[in-house]
Write a structure and sequence with these properties.
With 157 residues, the chain is of the alpha+beta class. The longest helix has 18 residues, at 2-19. It has helices spanning 2-19, 25-38, 82-86, 127-136; strands at 46-47, 52-57, 62-67, 71-77, 90-93, 100-101, 106-109, 117-125. Strand 7 and strand 8 (117-125) form a beta hairpin. It has one domain. The strands form 2 sheets. Strands 2-3-4-8-7-5 form a 6-stranded antiparallel sheet.
C-alpha cells in the first residue's frame, strides 16, 4: 500500500512539473516576434488570389492561415482577440473576395461575428517556417536555435 501511494505521489509530482514548462500567451507572442525578426521574414500588405483552406490558432494575437497551393501565412492581429484561440470556426471578413489585405480585412468567429479582429500584418511562410513557428507553442527552446488542407471550420493545418 505504501509503495502504491509513493508511486502515485511520484507520478503526480512528475506530471505537475512537466505542465509548468509551457510558455504564457505573452511569452509566445514575444517568441513569435523574435522568430520573425531573427529570420528576417518580410510582411506583405496584400495576398492576391487568396482562397481560404484552413487555419491554426497560435495565441490571441497570432494565427496561421492556409491558402490554395499549400501557401501558409502567419497573421498578426491588431489588439486582443481572445475568441480566436478557442473557437472551432473562423470567418474572414474581406474587402474583396479574392484577396487578403492587412489593415482592412478582419477575422471573427461564428460565435461572435460582430467582434472583428483587424489583420495587422501578413507574413508569407515556407513549410519549414510554419513548422518551426508551431513548435514555439510547445516550447521556446526547441525553436530558437534553428534559424534556417482542412475545411474552414477545422482547427488544424
Amino acid at each position: 500500500m505504501k509503495l502504491a501511494l509513493l508511486m502515485l505521489f511520484g507520478l503526480m509530482l512528475i506530471i505537475g512539473c512537466s505542465s509548468n514548462k509551457g510558455l504564457s500567451t505573452e511569452e509566445k507572442n514575444q517568441a513569435f516576434q523574435r522568430y520573425i525578426t531573427l529570420n528576417n521574414i518580410e510582411s506583405v500588405n496584400k495576398v492576391t488570389t487568396f482562397k481560404f483552406r484552413g487555419w491554426s490558432s497560435l495565441t490571441n494575437k497570432y494565427l496561421i492561415l492556409s491558402s490554395s497551393h499549400k501557401r501558409q501565412y502567419l497573421i498578426e492581429l491588431a489588439g486582443f482577440c481572445s475568441e480566436i484561440f478557442w473557437t472551432h470556426a473562423l470567418l474572414i471578413n474581406r474587402t474583396t473576395s479574392s484577396s487578403l489585405n492587412a489593415g482592412f480585412d478582419s477575422i471573427s468567429t461564428l460565435d461572435e461575428p460582430r467582434l472583428k479582429c483587424i489583420i495587422k500584418t501578413i507574413y508569407p511562410l515556407t513549410k519549414q517556417q510554419k513548422d518551426e513557428i508551431i513548435k514555439i507553442t510547445e516550447s521556446e527552446d526547441k525553436i530558437l536555435p534553428s534559424t534556417n488542407e482542412p475545411e474552414k471550420s477545422q482547427h488544424n493545418l
